[in-house]
Structure formats: C-alpha cells, structure tokens
Specification:
Bound molecules: adenosine-5'-triphosphate, magnesium ion
Distance between the termini: 41 Å
Order of helices and strands: EHEEHEHEHEEEEEHEHEHHEHEHHHHHE
Shape: elongated
Number of helices: 14
Oligomer: single chain
Largest sheet: 9 strands, mixed
Helix content: 40-55%
Radius of gyration: 27 Å
Number of strands: 15
Structural class: alpha/beta
Strand content: 15-25%
C-alpha cells in the first residue's frame, strides 16, 4: 500500500541557518544507509524528508533501516498521490480498507494539513469531506475527534501524502553535523555503546582498535569489525584503524612494575589515539569508561590516564551502571557480538593486582625508563585500516 516514508526531524532543525546543513547531512546519511535499495528517491518537501520507492516489497526493510538513522525523530509510512481532491479521497478510502484488514477499527478522524495554499479546499472542509466519504464507504465506522482508533493525516505540500501513523525513531542529530571524533573501540560491551551515544549527538565517528597479535586472535579482529558494522547502521561509514601494541606491552613488562601495566598501556593508547585523531581531522577521543567499574576507571586512574594527552576525551558512559549499559547494548544490537569470548589485549596483559590509586609521579618515573616516542612510532608502522 505504502510507496513513501515521510521522515520528520526534531524542533531544532526547523529553525535557524543550520537547517539546510542538517537536512543535507541527513539526506547523505539516508542515501548511505539505504544504498542497497534500487529505485528509491530521496528528497525534501517543506520541512520533511521523503524516501520514495518504486518497489513496494522493499517498504518494510526501508522502514526498518530508516528507524535507525540519527537525526530522524518520527517516520510515517505514507501514500503519495496527486493533489487532485478526488484522487486523494479514493486513496484515503483504499488506505482505510488496507488498515481495516490488519486491525479492528471502530472510530477514526481525518486531519488535513495544507502547506500549499493553492490547494482549492480549506483544510477543515477537506477533512470533513474525506471523513464523509469514508463513513459512506464503511458502514461500521464512526468519527471520534478526541480519541480515534486511527487518524488519517493528509499532508498537502508540493505533493500530497496520506498516512495513518507517526512512529517514534531513535532521534538524535544527523551524523556529521557536529564534528568528528575517534572512538577507542575494544570489542567489549561498553565502547560500542559509547560510540553510539556520541554519534547520536551528530558526531562523525571513526574507530581505533588495539590488539597484540599473535597474543590476541584474528577472531578478535573480526568481532571488532562486526561491532563497527552494527554501529554503521546508525551512523554511516566508520573507518576502523587497528594497531598492534605488542611491542609496547613487551617494553612495559621488561622495564616497569607489573601492577602499573594497565595504566601505562592505557596512556600509550591515548597518545596513539591522539596522534591518529590529529592526523585525520578528528577533534576528540571517545572511550567507554564508566566511573568505578574497574581499577583503571577510578577517579585517580582516569586522571592519570588522561593526563597523557591534551585532546579532550568524551566518556558518555561515565555515570551509567553496568546493567544500564548492557540494556542499551541489547537495544542497539551490539550486546550479542560484544560477549563473544575472544580475548582483548588488555585482558591478556592484565596484571593480577592493578593499581587503583596510581600516583602520576611514579607513573612518570616508570615511563622515564621507556622510549615513549620511539615506541609510539614503532607501533604506528602496524597501522591498518580494516
Ligand atoms: P569495553 O567494554 O569497552 O571493553 P571495559 O569495561 O572493558 O570497556 P576497559 O578495558 O577499562 O573497560 O577499557 C576502557 C576503555 O578503553 C574502553 O571502553 C575502550 O574505549 C578503551 N579500550 C580498552 N581496550 C581497548 C582496545 N583493545 N582497543 C581500543 N580501545 C580500547
Ligand atoms: Mg574491555
């Protein structure tokens, strides 16, 4: 029945000079997320974006994918028609028969919105006329303007769109409307959720994954790639960088105290991430840290880790409980992949008793035994784009 999806966005997009830019980003994103569909066209019509398909069989999957796009707040599966009153009435009745087959409908209401004032009939009058014709066509129906089972909405813009529901979608802002950041993506539960949350605020995300091959497996790589692909359903193309930091772990093991391993390794990760972000026009880093979750996420540990770099680090999960994060991961669809059992480099080299109250002085002293710049340079040679 439906041949088009009307996508509405949040209030803020409707105002100001940013509107055009937001809409442009959003259309880019929709094009990317729906690239597998042939015969679709995407266009703007007075404050909404429309996704039209010539192939009605694709409609359900188009709706499913559109629901996930950041920046879209509601969608309405719709029927696009000419702006001929008689055609609109016929199509409205047709839509009604379609709906009545799927659900028990007793009451209804018709609402007309007329952006195009050249349409010859006033909104109220047209609603009444369409309502009358629907009543005539279905004897078991009655009108209820306050609490109808179904509200038929006739939206008259450059074209006419008839719909019967508004579905709330993920919301957020169009990716790319708010800068670029580098997500430290591990393969655990937290970092994919962190990336999702920041991308939802309109930030274009790229990801960086550290491994210690051959101490971590190829399958761990695959897992991170899969997580990236799930995130891409929401936020479009993500470039995934991977780096082997085995040499760094070896040096730490050789020259430093075991309990400092995690903090030292994390400081290296931050330095490398800052470097890659800087070279690729990204303004901030993102991690999945949550306060107090593990030894390296106490206030003191976080402060010592962060002080290795100047670039701001976004930690959207900082105040969330693990159960909340897990719920979110399930909702997004990353959880099942995240719990696959392949080892992370941090767990492979995790000390038995990690520091929870690291002192910056002693960490700096340990680092003075390491050739920091040389180590960073040497692992940068292992940089791959997955
Ligand atoms: P996650 O569930 O995201 O792995 P975690 O609870 O295991 O997080 P940590 O291991 O302390 O917590 O990692 C904290 C953050 O550091 C991660 O959320 C991630 O952003 C980053 N990080 C940790 N390990 C890696 C890695 N191997 N590659 C890239 N980033 C990492
Ligand atoms: Mg982890």
């Amino acid at each position: 029945m439906y041949n088009i999806v009307a996508a509405g966005f949040g209030e803020i997009f409707l105002k100001g000079k940013n509107r055009g830019k937001f809409e442009h980003k959003l259309i880019e994103q929709i094009n990317y997320n729906l690239k597998e569909f042939k015969d679709i066209s995407i266009y703007r019509d007075s404050g909404k974006v429309f996704i039209e398909t010539k192939n009605e069989d694709d409609m359900d999957s188009i709706i499913g994918k559109t629901k996930k796009i950041f920046g879209i707040v509601t969608i309405s599966p719709s029927v696009k028609t000419d702006k001929d009153p008689e055609v609109i009435i016929e199509k409205s009745i047709e839509l009604f028969s379609y709906l009545k087959e799927k659900q028990d409908i007793r009451t209804f209401k018709v609402k007309t919105k007329r952006v195009d004032k050249s349409f010859p009939i006033k909104s109220m009058d047209f609603s009444a006329e369409v309502g009358g014709r629907i009543l005539a066509a279905f004897s078991d129906l009655s009108v209820d303007v306050h609490n109808p089972d179904v509200e038929i909405c006739i939206d008259i813009k450059k074209n006419c769109y008839i719909s019967s529901e508004k579905i709330r979608t993920v919301g957020g802002m169009p990716v790319g409307s708010c800068g670029k950041a580098l997500l430290l993506l591990s393969g655990g539960i937290d970092s994919p959720v962190a990336g999702y949350m920041i991308a939802k605020r309109g930030v274009e995300i790229n990801a960086l994954y550290f491994h210690t091959y051959p101490f971590t497996s190829e399958r761990a790589n695959e897992k991170v790639k899969q997580l990236k692909e799930i995130l891409e359903e929401y936020c479009g193309k993500i470039k995934l960088f991977s780096i082997n930091i085995l040499e760094i772990h070896k040096a730490i093991r050789e020259f430093c105290r075991e309990e400092e391993t995690t903090i030292l390794a994390r400081r290296f990760m931050m330095r490398i991430a800052e470097r890659i972000a800087g070279e690729n026009n990204m303004e901030m880093l993102i991690t999945g840290e949550s306060l107090g979750q593990v030894a390296s996420q106490t206030m003191k540990s976080m402060a010592v880790i962060e002080s290795a770099v100047e670039m701001p680090i976004l930690k959207p999960l900082v105040g969330m409980d693990k159960t909340e994060i897990i719920d979110r991961a399930k909702e997004i669809g990353t959880y099942e992949t995240s719990i696959l059992p392949y080892d992370d480099c941090c767990s492979v080299f995790a000390p038995a008793h990690p520091l929870i109250n690291p002192k910056l002085d002693s960490i700096l002293k340990s680092e003075s035994k390491l050739k920091i710049e040389e180590l960073v340079e040497s692992v940068l040679f292992t940089l791959e784009i997955l």
